């Protein structure tokens, strides 16, 4: 089975659909035998995802820089919590421990992680699948913008196609598994 790295918010957002889809994804990852790799927090959507995977018997690996352990309220009930020195090391460690990448709703940290791993794929540093869980069309404005970057000649169609989106946890995992 695969190790799936999930980028998502340390906040819950303002729609119950975000929490519901997040817990469904965590449970489904575990039920399908995948290992969750994520940022290591016990709060927000991050905590919901980890708890759902753990409650379903899944393996969960968290990666958190020392300076954020208290700020992000590290989850000490994980299968493994890897503590690193800084954010750069966190992202590299998460990427090295993953076979695929998923982004759920989140803020600037989530977007930064998503764009960095997508850039690494574009540069040929990995060939791992990357998808968005487009809960309540959260990512639709971003996807429209990305399509615009293609039409304006700043992003190649092949690069755009590297990042796909699905509306449900099951359809997202089906698409990822088809590429693994």
From TrEMBL:
Q: What is its EC number?
A: 3.2.2.n1
Q: Name one GO cellular component term.
A: cytosol
Reaction it catalyzes: AMP + H2O = D-ribose 5-phosphate + adenine
Supply the alphabetized keyword list: Cytokinin biosynthesis, Hydrolase
Q: Name one GO biological process term.
A: cytokinin biosynthetic process
Molecular function as annotated in GO: AMP nucleosidase activity
User: Does the record's keyword annotation contain Hydrolase?
Assistant: yes
InterPro entries, sorted: LOG (IPR005269), LOG_fam (IPR031100)
Q: What SUPFAM superfamilies does the record point to?
A: MCP/YpsA-like
Q: Does the keyword Hydrolase apply?
A: yes
Q: Matching Pfam families, A to Z?
A: Lysine_decarbox (PF03641)
Give the source's domain of life in one word.
Answer: Bacteria
Could you say which protein family the record assigns here?
Belongs to the LOG family.
Please name the PANTHER family in this protein's record: LOG FAMILY PROTEIN YJL055W
Name by which UniProt lists this protein:
Cytokinin riboside 5'-monophosphate phosphoribohydrolase
